[in-house]
């Protein structure tokens, strides 16, 4: 599902069934349709097209002329955050990696009223629109900004007076460094020890007292979520490493790698992706299949060859099938044995036999 389908899915929500397209709104909606970035296939006669347009207008911070459209946009956007969060949680639990990423991203775009292709610095207050518009037009990867000095940032936007401020804000933008240690537990289960190191400057007015993140492990194709958890970075631990322990499945044929993605719950563009290679991973041998229960003649209790032992089991004359099958190895050898059988199958007596 792409962005077009995701916006359409939102517009078809049952919550907006009473939203209608008024005749006086059609001209303004037609103008807005040409200004929003995500194409809309439906006719403006349909209410879903109106809902879709107004959501994009809200994100784009476009001005509306009609009072009725403003009223409907307020109604739609008041529900948008809640509906998109619900959609994100649904697809997260179903393990759909790409759709979960898009749903969370759209939720953050509605909250911050900006598009993900715009500069992440739009999420800070105090930067003139003129500078933000210039940054939007710069085709520079966000990671490159961390390498620029304050002077270089000032030259980039041709506004030297803002150089120090821009440099400070770039380094206040939430950034995490990741390191992972992978240990096989069984032939199909891996233990992952993930170390998260904050790499940004904490500012109370910007970050508050906590920054929430999602830790998501994806398969090598980036299609399915193998593990996810919520991680809270607190102000008092900003200078410390944080370790998370969890397990993920691994199946044949073995993938070349997994991806660990840590993405901010609030900030657009704040995410770190760590590929975890399995090139040198050595997995334990497969466990042998369960032993079949054989059709054996039940052994009599007298096989214990000890009258004092036999009195312990005077309530029955023969051992049951499970006890019969494991008797020899338990009673006559010192070998290690794992007995796994259903409740009520006589495992307690099996535990008595080696003694």
Automatic annotation (TrEMBL):
Which InterPro entries has this protein been placed in?
C2_domain_sf, DEAD/DEAH_box_helicase_dom, Hel308_SKI2-like, Ig_E-set, P-loop_NTPase, Sec63-dom
One Pfam annotation reads DEAD
Q: Which UniProt keywords apply?
A: ATP-binding, Helicase, Hydrolase, Nucleotide-binding
Q: List the GO terms this entry assigns under cellular component, sorted alphabetically.
A: nucleus
* SEC63 domain location: 1-278
Q: Which Gene3D superfamilies match?
A: 5' to 3' exonuclease, C-terminal subdomain, C2 domain, P-loop containing nucleotide triphosphate hydrolases, Sec63 N-terminal domain-like domain
Report if keyword Hydrolase is assigned: yes
GO molecular function terms here? ATP binding; helicase activity; hydrolase activity; nucleic acid binding
Q: What is this protein called?
A: SEC63 domain-containing protein
* Organism whose genome encodes this protein: Dipteronia sinensis
């Amino acid at each position: 599902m792409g962005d077009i389908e995701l916006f359409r899915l939102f517009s078809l929500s049952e919550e907006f069934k009473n939203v209608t397209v008024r005749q006086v709104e059609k001209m303004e909606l037609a103008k807005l349709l040409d200004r929003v970035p995500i194409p809309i296939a439906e006719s403006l006669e349909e209410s879903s097209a109106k809902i879709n347009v107004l959501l994009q207008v809200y994100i784009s911070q476009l001005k509306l002329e009609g009072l009725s459209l403003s009223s409907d946009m307020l109604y739609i956007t008041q529900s948008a955050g809640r509906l998109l969060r619900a959609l994100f949680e649904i697809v997260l639990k179903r393990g759909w990696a790409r759709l979960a990423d898009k749903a969370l991203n759209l939720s953050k775009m509605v909250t911050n009223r900006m598009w993900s292709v715009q500069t992440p610095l739009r999420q800070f207050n105090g930067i003139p629109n003129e500078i933000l518009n210039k940054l939007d037009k710069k085709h520079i990867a966000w990671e490159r900004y961390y390498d620029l000095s304050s002077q270089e940032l000032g030259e980039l936007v041709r506004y030297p007076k803002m150089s120090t401020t821009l440099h400070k804000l770039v380094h206040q933008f939430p950034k995490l460094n990741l390191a992972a240690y992978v240990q096989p537990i069984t032939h199909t289960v891996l233990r992952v020890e993930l170390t998260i190191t904050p790499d940004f400057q904490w500012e109370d007015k910007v970050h508050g007292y906590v920054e929430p993140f999602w830790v998501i492990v994806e398969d090598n194709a980036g299609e399915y979520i193998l593990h996810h958890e919520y991680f809270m970075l607190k102000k008092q631990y900003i200078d410390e490493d944080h370790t998370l322990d969890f397990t993920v499945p691994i199946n044949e044929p073995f993938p070349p790698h997994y991806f660990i993605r840590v993405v901010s719950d609030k900030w657009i563009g704040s995410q770190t992706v760590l590929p975890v290679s399995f090139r040198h991973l050595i997995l334990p041998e497969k466990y042998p299949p369960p032993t079949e229960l054989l059709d054996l003649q039940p052994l009599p209790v007298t096989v214990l060859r000890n009258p004092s032992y036999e009195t312990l089991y005077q309530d029955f004359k023969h051992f049951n099938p499970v006890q019969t099958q494991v008797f020899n190895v338990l009673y006559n050898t010192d070998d290690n044995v794992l007995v796994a059988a259903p409740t009520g199958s006589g495992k307690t007596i099996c535990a008595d036999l080696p003694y």
